[in-house]
Amino acid sequence: MITKVKANKSFRGTTKYVLEKEKAKIIGGNMYGKSTNELVEQFTLSAHLNPQLKDPCYHLMLSVPQTDRTLSDDELANLSQRHFANVIVLSRIKGDESQVKQPDKRISDTKLKQLVDEFIETELPAYDFFIARHSDKEHDHTHIVASRVNNLDGKSIRTWNNYAHSEHSARLLEREFQLTPLPSSWESKQKAMTRNQLERVESLGLPGEEIMRRAIEQVAANKPTMPQLIERLWREHQVKSIVSYYGHGGVRGIKFGIDVGSVNEDGSPRLLWKQGGNLNKYKCSFTKLQTELGINYDPLRDDSEIKRLNNFLETVENSQLNQQLIPTIFPKNAQAIAEIKYQLTPAKSDAKQRASSELINTISDFIEQSVVESTLIETLPQLTEQLSEYHQNLSAARTTYDKLLAAIAEREQLLSQRIVDVIADFIEQSVVESALTETVLELTQQLSQYKEQLVIAKTTFNDLNAVLATELQSYLEKRAISSISDYVEQSTVSSALTETVLELTQQLSQNQQQLSAGRTIFDDLEAAIVYLEQLHRSQKPVDAVALNKAQTLATDKLKLTPNQTAELYQYYSADLQNLLVTDRDKEIAIRALLDNKPSEEVEEIIFASPAGWTQDEARELVLIASNQLATQKSELEQSLDQKQRIESEFLAIAVPIAVELINWQLRESGSNSLRFKRATLEKQSRELVFTHDERGEIFRVAVNRNQSGELEYSPIYIGSVEIEDIQLWQKAERVLQQIIESEQQQELRQSKGISL
């Protein structure tokens, strides 16, 4: 089976492509929708659970070869569903078992099947997906469109190594469903065939690239020399091999060519040429032929023979007669002479070697020329006989000529049909592109409307935020007063403490009156709480009996029943079963504190833990949780303060420069907008708007001058500020300074001219 897998951003584009094809129908999945809009709506809800995920749409394809049996809708749906489950389970495996390309390390087929069966039963329903069958080609194939987001926990499917996982899943399913087995790309050490290439194999036979690859592997099995490889490829398989050289003499590369039936404008055959590295980068480059296939190459011995073969192959026509002439024109004696020449030269010193080499070259050239001439003399009678036979066969070939014309006509008809198929594919692609264009236009209009609504809603949001802030402050103040009052009531254990409590009660009463009149802030109450706690810790108990009684009453007031603590512990420990006991109980304490539970009640909830905490340990655990919450709030406040500071500094830099630049633009051209490289500054009434082409509106401020002529501005909206924004306005300030200096120099020159 052929497989494809891809993650992308667009649920709508993928779903529309899959469903709106001719003869497309949904045969499986777990989604309630049947139309594109219904399915996209459900996918979008799933994607909202993980908004940080950039590519939430998962698209997988399975294609069964035409030579296999035709599968029913149920069989294809089951096959596709198991393929989807296989890919997800493989993406979760870690360690050596995840190495699917290494059979001795990867997970066993039995174990993987068990994991996949469990996953389909328990977890697969948590992923939104549908399976569609396409019947628009010569054989059926299926598309699986899914959301990568799990609807239960919001986690996403990992896409690391998903192509290898997809191929491994296909090999397992081929065995399980008794389909034609194919090698994976790492097994054949070459790129896997595409669906179109496989269709060509089924309809027209092997493509030229595959023919050349197989011919090279077959000839290389005997470990020949490089010239022998080139000669045998041509003589036995009609494959031309041309070696190219650099100017300094080194080998540049090798290319292979084969006649696949196409012709040039003048009617001559046009060969399909492929560089060795492009034909198969693992085996067929000039270097890999030696290291991977064991081809023997020595430049001193082989280069002259290779260059002669190059000259011959570049001029010879692609016919059987010329292929038979190769061993005659280039006999093995010449190659033997070259090998002897190579063996004689290395054993001498440099000076003697050069003299000997020149002498040997002269002798060998003479011998080679003599051998070639004698070989030609012997070959001429053979050629004469062959030509005589060819002349006799010519008369018999005339009857075959009509058959050849019929075959050519049939081939032209086949080529015409292929052209029609190509045009049809192009039209389908154009339809998809036009549909995408219409969708983009609709989305652009919708985004424009949303942007206008967002501008209107900003002012309402600011008002609502102010009201909420006021209500929240009032609510916190009331809660603080209530907590202090409860604490004071519980502290009345002795006459000495009673007097202190009365004083504090009077202070709190005054604070309450001041709060109602708006004359105090929450910090005073906080100081009072700190003072009360310090006083309570330093005060020695006056009456131990009364104190014990008061503690008993307080304990009885907060005491929860075992059933209540167990229920609360189970309620707050939801989704925390996978954590260690300590981490789980700390998280339970945080959740309870966030739910405004008192510390004593949180301690009682912690007592229900299977860890069996003591009272002191539970108190420490609650204290740790409380400190962690306080730290989180402090960090959040600091980040907000830092963001406001950066925005304030950015406006202080940008606004004065923007005012000067707009004023200069109005003086020069009368235009109220100024274009930057990737942004635009525009004056709208008394507002200045700076908009980035990709990130949208950066700031919008209202600008005016007071009676003293000083510039005043108030921000209406400020977006996300980045370092490049500050750098842009710093550069704009330098440009503005250059403009001012240039204008001053021009005014100075004009004034000098007038004085003269």
Automatic annotation (TrEMBL):
Quote the protein name from its UniProt record: Relaxase/mobilization nuclease domain-containing protein
Which Pfam family name is an example for this entry? Relaxase
List keywords of the entry alphabetically.
Answer: Coiled coil
Q: What superkingdom heads the lineage?
A: Bacteria
Coiled-coil ranges (or none): 433-460
Q: Note the InterPro entries from the entry.
A: Endonuclease_MobA/VirD2
**MobA/VirD2-like nuclease domain: from which residue to which, for each copy?**
17-82, 102-179
